[in-house]
Amino acid sequence: MSSPFGAFKSQVIDYLEKLGIKEHEQxxxxxxxxxxxxxxxxxxEFKEKKFELTPPxxxxxxxxxxxxxxxFKADIPALGLLLNxxxxxxxxxxxxxxxxxxxxxxEHTSANPLHxxxxxxxxxxxxxxxxxxxxxxxxxxxxxxxxxxxxxxxVMIASIGYKAAPFMPKGIxxxxxxxxxxxxxxxxxxxxxxxxxxxxxxxxxxxxxxKQDELAGYAETLREKLPSEFDEITSKLSKLSAExxxxxxxxxxxxxxxxxxEVKKLVRGLVETxxxxxxxxxxxxxxxxxxxxxxxxLANGEEITALIAALRSSPFAITHxxxxxxxxxxxMEAKSVKPDSPIREVPPLVLLRSDGxxxxxxxxxxxxxxxxSQADEVYNVVxxxxxxxxxxxxxxxxxxxxxxxxxxxxxxxxxxxxxxxxMAGRYGSYVTLDEVISSAISLAEKExxxxxxxxxxxxxxxxxxxxxIGAVKYALLSxxxxxxxxxxxxxxxNFEENSAPFIQYAAVRAKSLLNMAEKxxxxxxxxxxxxxxxxxxxxRLILLCSMLPDTAxxxxxxxxxxxxxxRLMDIANxxxxxxxxxxILNAELETAQARLALARSxxxxxxxxxxxxxxxxxxxx
Length: 621
Hints:
This protein is of the alpha/beta class. The protein has helices at 4-18, 76-90, 119-137, 153-164, 174-198, 205-225, 227-237, 242-258, 261-284, 302-312, 328-335, 360-374, 387-399, 433-451, 457-477, 489-492, 500-520, 536-558, 561-581, 589-612, and strands at residues 39-42, 60-66, 69-74, 103-107, 141-148, 291-294, 317-320, 323-326, 349-350, 377-383, 408-413, 416-417, 485-486. Strand 2 (60-66) and strand 3 form a beta hairpin. Helix 5 packs across helix 9 (261-284). The longest helix is centred in the first third of the chain and has 25 residues, at 174-198. 45% of the residues are buried.
């Protein structure tokens, strides 16, 4: 089933084919001014052709030749009737336009299990989750994966501290506890390094002392949070010299590589503690995963051995700084690979350390092969700063002639800035996503209470959660992933403009009209007369809602999630303007019925669209 606007477009395509213009020749556009039409075909390519226009039929109300364009106007009442029919039939699935789907894996979030998730992780999680929702709405079989980094240097540092730490105190969230242990451990590790360097320092003595003071400041801040736990961890870690740290880190990295059960148990204990906190945070925002993939499971065995052998025998294998690498620039040129994001130069991809152990990039290649074995296409939602690394992995697949190399895609996103805040996870300085969500819900609750002082506690709680979480999600999803987001909570929760609460309010308003109509005894019409809707905002709302499924399809197909956010804002703006100007319940009966049918279409359009962004509509605002 096509959307209402899609049905109109199909009739335009058929009309043009009867004029002798084949579908593949048609470059239909939406005119900037609706007074010109709702679809237009530029005729510059058809200057030699003379057209005999036939009278329009169906959803086409008018066809006109003007300024080198063939303009088509939709029959708005007929479009409104089709919109009403589809909304009634599909309900909250209205925005879905299904096609023959593929098997798709979306890997997203994959936050390092070293500290609580922050607002930057939220952008990744919300983007990946909305991509999954949009692609499912297109008919794809989507599986979401979280890649667990349990092999890195920082994980080893945190694990050493975790071994020295007491049991987790009551009342602290698991990932917050891991964040505390990691920050304390990392500071002790860096202090040991600075102390060793100071013994031989000459020219850099002053800068090392400044670094030592800075670390001591971070340490004091951490001690204020959990004094006894801080003292217990540091009393044990202070006995380790810089050399001790390096030896223990190397031992543990080797242990993870070889599958040492003692080392693996310790690291897994730390990481699983952090992940339990992640799952709680993500669950509160309506996000879950189909599969959790552990990096350490890729570190040894026949698969990684076979991969290294294949890479070594590739014609693009080189020796770079004494170790095995892939000449990525040569692969890119030979295979004509276009990067997913602009990259000036791609350095060689180093595959092994000098001691023969694998690097995370090598394991990433194997992980990509595993994902591709389970799907037709794979999308990795990873920060833009990792664009080169993501391209290197893809080029490595080309280097070994993997048949699915073209079907793994990097979805980059830019950072999120919090004005006035500088974050450093390794020192325990960050604003957690839990804090942001909690603050958003509190602000939403205050606003809802002021508007609805008699609201019961349960409805207040549910409404505040939907508004607060929705506000944070929309603020991050409404901006192109290619742009940096300046996140301001007060702006995200502005009920008056450009926010999720503003859109949610339009849906709630529209539904409240239907409830009031029922109380007044205004009967529903099975076939509303949309010819009664002649106001400019009424016609604009019919058009915007009719286009919504096409916008959702575009967002899914191009990964421009912000396009759907913008369309929903357009609908909310048009409805709020309309609601303020036009009498709905007090109009004569047939007009009131048509306007109420339009209100239902607006409410359901917004709900169905927000659902694809992972945003709920509250009962009350």
